[in-house]
C-alpha cells in the first residue's frame, strides 16, 4: 500500500493517529524521497570521461558523479537512522 493511501485510509476511518504514527509516516515519506534521490544520483550519467580500450579505440564513457552519489547515499542512510531512532525512542517510552 502506498504511503499516501495509508494516510488517507487512517483519516477516512475516523481513527485518531498518534503523534508517533504521524512522525513515522513523515519519516517514511522522507526515506522514500531520499531513496529516489539516491537512485537518481546513481542513474544520472552527468560525468563524461575519455577512455581507450584494448585495441586503442577512444570513446566517451558517461558515469554518475561519485560526489553526488555519495551525498545522496549519506542522506538516505541518515533517513534510515532517523527512523530507527524514532522507533527506539517509542519503544523506550512504551517500556516506562
Task: Walk me through what this model shows.
- This protein is of the alpha+beta class and 96 residues long.
- The protein has one domain (3-95).
- Helix content is 68%, strand content 12%.
- It is built from three helices and two strands, in the order ααββα.
- It has helices at 3-12, 19-43, 66-95; strands spanning 47-52, 58-63.
- A two-stranded antiparallel ribbon has the order 1-2.
- A hairpin with a 5-residue loop joins strand 1 (47-52) and strand 2 (58-63).
Question: Which helices and strands appear, and what pairs or packs with what?
Answer:
Elements: H1 3-12, H2 19-43, E1 47-52, E2 58-63, H3 66-95
Antiparallel strand pairs: 1-2
Helix pairs in contact: 2-3
Keywords:
68% helix; 12% strand; 96 residues
Oligomer state of the chains in this structure:
single chain
Strand order of the largest sheet: 1-2
Total E-strand runs: 2
N→C terminal distance: 32 Å
- Which of globular, elongated, flat, extended, rod-shaped describes the shape? elongated
Q: Name the structural class.
A: alpha+beta
Q: Would you list the SSEs in sequence order as H and E?
A: HHEEH
Proportion in helices: 55-70%
Instruction: Please state the average pLDDT score.
Output: 88
Low-confidence stretches: none
Radius of gyration: 21 Å
| Secondary structure tally, helices | 3
Largest sheet: 2 strands, antiparallel
Percentage beta strand: 5-15%
Please give the domain count.
1
Amino acid at each position: 500500500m502506498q504511503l499516501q493511501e495509508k494516510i488517507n485510509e487512517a483519516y477516512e476511518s475516523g481513527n485518531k493517529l498518534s503523534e508517533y504514527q504521524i512522525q513515522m509516516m513523515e519519516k517514511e515519506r522522507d526515506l522514500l524521497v531520499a531513496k529516489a534521490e539516491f537512485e537518481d544520483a546513481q542513474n544520472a550519467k552527468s560525468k563524461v570521461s575519455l577512455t581507450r580500450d584494448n585495441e586503442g579505440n577512444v570513446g566517451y564513457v558517461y558515469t554518475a558523479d561519485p560526489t553526488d552519489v555519495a551525498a545522496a547515499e549519506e542522506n538516505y542512510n541518515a533517513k534510515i537512522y532517523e527512523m530507527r531512532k524514532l522507533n527506539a525512542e517509542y519503544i523506550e517510552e512504551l517500556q516506562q
